[in-house]
From TrEMBL:
Binding-site positions, FMN: 10, 23-25
Name of the protein in question: FMN dependent NADH:quinone oxidoreductase
Keyword vocabulary terms for this entry: Flavoprotein, FMN, NAD, Oxidoreductase
Natural source organism: Pseudoalteromonas undina
Function, as annotated: Also exhibits azoreductase activity. Catalyzes the reductive cleavage of the azo bond in aromatic azo compounds to the corresponding amines.
């Protein structure tokens, strides 16, 4: 049985009246999931389009509720954490997590960061123990597969690339993935969008091909 959590972060829709405005990252993610589902049934599917329906930003009151013991939380505090509870339950249930995101200003969209802020939560997805020395935070979940699908206007953000030092999207996702319980990460990238030349088309074609192959590989595990 497979439970899949799919999080899309682009503010663009999958399909638009003008195809030039279709979300690249969302369409590649859809291709991956369709390729997976052709070979193996997805028993439970959670979908969050945080680009179109962003979660609330956390607040001082939200943080106060997080650090209030459960038996002392007020009804209002429980309500403040209701969305976080739901999002965390989706992560906990998932075997595979798919996150698609464009690069905005060399990092992740604010909407995706808001989702992470809601789900990386003490005593829910990580715990804190000073007896561990300089690394007191440890994840509480494990064994999950993460598929990261990104689209960028420029190129060379990979390790060793000419813009590696400017990439704050995938490195950030890698760091945060630990607290989603991820043990294996697969990355698919489409680049050169702003150049709109043959390099972009080749990169896009390659990303779709990788998505199809990976979908087949993961469905056989």
């Amino acid at each position: 049985m497979t439970t899949l959590l799919h999080v899309d972060a682009s503010v663009r829709a999958v399909k638009n009246d003008n195809p030039d405005h279709d979300s690249i990252s969302k369409n590649i993610a859809k291709h991956f999931i369709d390729s997976f589902a052709k070979r193996q049934a997805i028993d439970e599917y959670f979908y969050r389009d945080v680009g179109v329906n962003p979660p609330s930003f956390i607040t001082q009151d939200w943080i106060g509720a997080v650090f209030t013991p459960d038996d002392k939380k007020t009804a209002e505090q429980h309500q403040l954490l209701a969305l976080s509870d739901t999002l965390i339950a989706e992560i906990a249930a998932a075997d595979i997590i798919v996150i698609s995101s464009p690069m905005y200003n060399y990092g992740m969209p604010a909407q995706l960061k808001a989702w992470f802020d809601q789900v990386i939560r003490i005593n829910q997805t990580f715990d804190f123990d000073l007896s561990r020395g300089d690394f007191p935070l440890q994840p509480l979940l494990d064994g999950k597969i993460l598929v990261v699908i990104t689209s960028t206007g420029e190129f060379g953000f990979e390790q060793g690339g000419i813009r590696e030092h400017m990439s704050h999207l995938v490195p950030h996702l890698r760091t945060l993935s630990k607290y989603l319980g991820v043990s294996t990460i697969h990355e698919i990238a489409s680049e050169y969008q702003e150049f709109a030349d043959v390099r972009h088309q080749l990169s896009l074609d390659n990303a779709y091909s990788q998505a199809a192959v990976l979908g087949g590989q993961l469905s056989n595990q």
